[in-house]
Input
Amino acid sequence: MDSVLLGTSVPSGTRRLLDLGAGAGVAGLCAMAHEEALETTFVEIDPDMAELARLNVAQNGFGHRAGVVTLDVLAAGAERKTAGLATDRFDVVIANPPYFSEGTLAPDPTRAGARHMAATFLDGWVKTAVSSAHAQGTVIFIHTADALPELLGAFSARMGGIVVLPLSPRPGMAASRVMVKGRKGSRAPTTLLPPITLHGDEGNGFVPEIDAVLRGTARFDWQRGSPVLISGGIPSEPTAKQ
Output
């Protein structure tokens, strides 16, 4: 779900998108489904997941306007350049970094790397994102709410116009996720938007606005701070479970 929410938060009119830590490409694919002219570069460290992203791009008919780079987001600038990841290029950079810095490690080291990341590494992800965005580019991350202090520190050190959108599981509950957006070169103050609730008081169903986002008939409008109904669709089911 996080990847869909992230992909549908890409502002309308974006032409060049970078999806960092793309996995099977769900976030970038959702953005492309809403923007017919959008060109997307997917970056994923795991070769198997990168190949799945390529398959999903082809399956959805986006091969002519997308590319997948197998690369560590935290790679040095020279290594990123050699791999074909340009700096100061993208209109929007999105990222869904690994969660859970504590707990039991998964036995598969690639899966463990996707589930465990020290907070200090978030700064490296933001640094790569900002360097990849053009002079007035936008960076959007989704992460757990408890990572907000680290995210705000990394964002505010490099960008302005920061907007924080809390995502709450149910009415009256504390936010479990946050989406954070910043603009390179901006000096605008930080804005904290009202939280968006994902579920109602009871049951597992999503509230209508979020359900519309997940079905591809709505996307996030950062000006309003809420989903807005549109005409559009979502890509076909990804080859791998996310």
Helices lie at 2-7, 26-34, 47-59, 77-82, 109-115, 119-132, 148-156, 208-215. DSSP finds eight helices and eleven strands in the chain. Residues 119-132 form the longest helix (14 residues). The two ends are 9 Å apart (CA to CA).
